[in-house]
């Protein structure tokens, strides 16, 4: 072990509150730090003595100072990597290609990572060249050095426990990395589906709460026929429910893996029994039934499933964004806009206009949707960019989708808790608009005819006299008759027919 001067590590907090390693940021460059020397095929490098990662990770930290967002920002990916390594260790032990005591150590360390330990050691940036090789090697080094520590050995003493020969046995980045990111996406999708369902329930509850409140419907931003506010919110819930189904359908497709493919799908260096063994163990560890692809060559080169995930997520985000547009419109005002609903006030809305409150929660969800749309374009380009037996761009595919899943999950949560649950109806405003709306005349056309109804609509607009009053003044219907035709149940379609209404009907056409 040597002592040297140079950048020391710092720890920052990720979006999920996870401590994230950032080498050399805001540290005294002259501060001495204990180091160890490690060697690879390119030469030697000093590694912080207390770091569990090693020289391959160190080179990646130098080579890819791009995003400054570490792997630990995506805990589901770290956990998925550990599960894959754990399954590999169990499979290697079962088929006898690694000594049981070594396999058991790897198994133990992987479980520590699954349980939340050592995440801060996954310091590597999410965006990297090499098709995920640096990520795989980072995991191998962390596991190997923790195994060495448990053996009472020094970190970096790879003669006693090796990141590749032992931790990476029977594996390649090209089957480990895609399998891990698929599994991580399954975990993240489950979290999203849980939050998405709670949001659906919130909209449904508002639909029940507002079931008896009439309002004016709109098409092409113009007044249309009446409906209830409850129908509008139930429509939001139904819209989201469709995406709940589409997102759920993706999970079985993500469970097809290529473990055992090794480099390009031929299975070189892996025992023929390994693929089935690792599949079975990964199924047990993850709780999801994994399926080995019938064509490992194809499975290693084809990344089409990620377009399916990204595209389905984009659909859900776009539809949610449309709902947020509606919430912003319906709450616009409070005096010169629609003013039909009231969103919970979340913050002072202006540095210059006192009392202004903006719809900030729907706005941030809109921005999440815009980001997901952009990420989908990135995923599409990266999937298309693959060549021959491997797609080198899986890291940008992974980080784009993982970020979109995390942001969408957070967006559903904040929209529910900070907006939808607290929405109230501006009942007086809604009643006023229904009473003065010419759209209600549509309900009269079966009784007084389209031409007479159109004339009434123009007169109501010109005189500001309600349709109901004009119909009675002209003797076209009695007050009791029009009350029945224009009842909330009939206008909203909740009750399609309210019983016979004896009226002079429009003369039949010749």
TrEMBL record:
Q: Does the keyword Signal apply?
A: no
Q: Which residues form the Fumarate lyase N-terminal domain?
A: 43-374
- Region called Disordered, residue ranges: 1-31
InterPro entries in the record, alphabetically? Aspartate_Ammonia-Lyase, Fumarase/histidase_N, Fumarase_C_C, Fumarate_lyase_CS, Fumarate_lyase_fam, Fumarate_lyase_N, L-Aspartase-like
Query: What's a single GO CC term here?
Result: cytosol
On whether Lyase is a keyword of this UniProt record, the answer is yes
**Cross-referenced Pfam families:** FumaraseC_C, Lyase_1
Q: What is this protein called?
A: Aspartate ammonia-lyase
At the highest ranks, the source species' classification is: Bacteria, Bacillati, Actinomycetota, Actinomycetes, Micrococcales
The EC number of this protein is 4.3.1.1
Mind telling me which PANTHER family this protein's record contains? Answer: ASPARTATE AMMONIA-LYASE (PTHR42696:SF2)
GO MF terms on file?
aspartate ammonia-lyase activity
Superkingdom, according to UniProt? Answer: Bacteria
- Give GO BP annotations, semicolon-separated: aspartate metabolic process; tricarboxylic acid cycle
């Amino acid at each position: 072990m040597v002592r040297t001067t140079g950048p020391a590590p710092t720890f920052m907090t990720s979006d999920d509150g996870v401590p994230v390693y950032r080498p050399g940021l805001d540290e005294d460059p002259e501060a001495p730090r204990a180091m160890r020397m490690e060697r690879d095929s390119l030469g030697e490098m000093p590694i912080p003595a207390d770091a569990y990662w090693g020289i391959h990770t160190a080179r990646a930290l130098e080579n890819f100072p791009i995003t400054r967002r570490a792997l630990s920002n995506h805990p589901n990916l770290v956990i998925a990597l550990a599960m894959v390594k754990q399954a590999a260790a169990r499979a290697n032990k079962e088929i006898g290609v690694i000594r049981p005591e070594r396999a058991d150590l790897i198994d133990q360390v992987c479980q520590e990572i699954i349980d939340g330990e050592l995440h801060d050691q996954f310091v590597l940036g999410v965006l990297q060249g090499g098709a995920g090789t640096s990520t795989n090697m980072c995991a191998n080094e962390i596991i190997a050095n923790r195994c060495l520590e448990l053996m009472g050995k020094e970190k970096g003493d790879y003669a006693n426990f090796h990141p590749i020969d032992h931790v990476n046995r029977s594996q390649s980045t090209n089957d480990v990395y895609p399998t891990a990111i698929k599994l991580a996406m399954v975990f993240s999708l489950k979290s999203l589906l849980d939050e998405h369902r709670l949001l659906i329930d919130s909209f449904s509850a508002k639909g029940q709460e507002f079931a008896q409140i009439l309002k004016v419907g709109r098409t092409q931003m113009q007044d249309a026929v009446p409906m209830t506010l409850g129908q509008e919110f139930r429509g939001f819930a139904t819209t989201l429910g469709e995406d709940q189904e589409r997102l759920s359908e993706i999970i079985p497709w993500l469970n097809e893996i290529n473990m055992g493919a090794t480099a390009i799908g031929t299975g070189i260096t892996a025992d023929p029994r390994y693929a089935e063994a690792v599949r079975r163990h990964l199924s047990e560890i993850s709780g999801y039934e994994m399926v080995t692809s019938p064509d490992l060559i194809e499975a290693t080169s084809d990344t089409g499933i990620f377009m399916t995930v990204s595209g389905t997520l984009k659909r859900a985000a776009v539809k949610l964004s449309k709902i947020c547009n509606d919430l912003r419109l319906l709450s616009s005002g409070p005096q010169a806009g629609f003013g039909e609903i009231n969103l919970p006030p979340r913050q002072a809305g202006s540095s210059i206009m006192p009392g202004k409150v903006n719809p900030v929660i729907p706005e941030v969800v809109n921005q999440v949707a815009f980001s997901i749309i952009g990420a989908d374009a990135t995923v599409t380009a990266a999937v298309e960019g693959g060549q021959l037996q491997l797609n080198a761009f899986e890291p940008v595919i992974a980080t784009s989708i993982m970020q979109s899943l995390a942001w969408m999950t957070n967006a559903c949560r904040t929209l529910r808790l900070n907006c939808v649950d607290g929405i109230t109806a501006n009942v007086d405003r809604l009643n006023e608009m229904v009473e003065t709306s010419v759209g209600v005349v549509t309900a009269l056309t079966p009784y007084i005819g389209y031409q007479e109804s159109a004339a009434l609509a123009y007169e109501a607009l010109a005189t500001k006299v309600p349709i109901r009053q004009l119909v009675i003044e002209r003797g076209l219907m009695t007050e009791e008759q029009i009350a029945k035709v224009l009842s909330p149940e009939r206008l909203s379609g909740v009750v399609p027919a309210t019983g016979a209404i004896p009226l002079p009907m429009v003369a039949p056409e010749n």
